[in-house]
Design a protein that fits this description.
five-stranded mixed beta barrel
Length: 143
Amino acid sequence: MSVVTIWLLCGVAGLALELILPGLIVLFFGCGALLTGIATWIFPSLPIEGQLIIFVVSSVVLLLVFRKMLRNHFFNKSKESGDELADEYIGKIAVATSDFVSGRGEVEFKGAKWEAISSDEIHTGDQVVITSRESIKLTVNKQ
């Protein structure tokens, strides 16, 4: 088996491993191996030290340059997805399951109990309108 084939197989294995392992790191070492395989194919007399230098430098440069960009592109929750979640709550009716004391209480919405805050005086059983959601806390107003 030629050195070029070994580098190319290592590159393909690195790309395949990225599908299994989390973190978006192995991808760049797979790309570095592919680039090293291509360089070894173009320059067949390239010594192993040169191949290793190409592999390490290309892998690290690709990692530093592209990881953050790809991570933001594929794994960053966009504002739009947050807006879609907000649409599921805002303007909907919930029922107070406790009296609100100092502007804080509990409401039931879609079968789940939520912590809620409100500037209105709310008592158990009152229907409230959800005006916003922050993490696991709802802001509500009396209907």
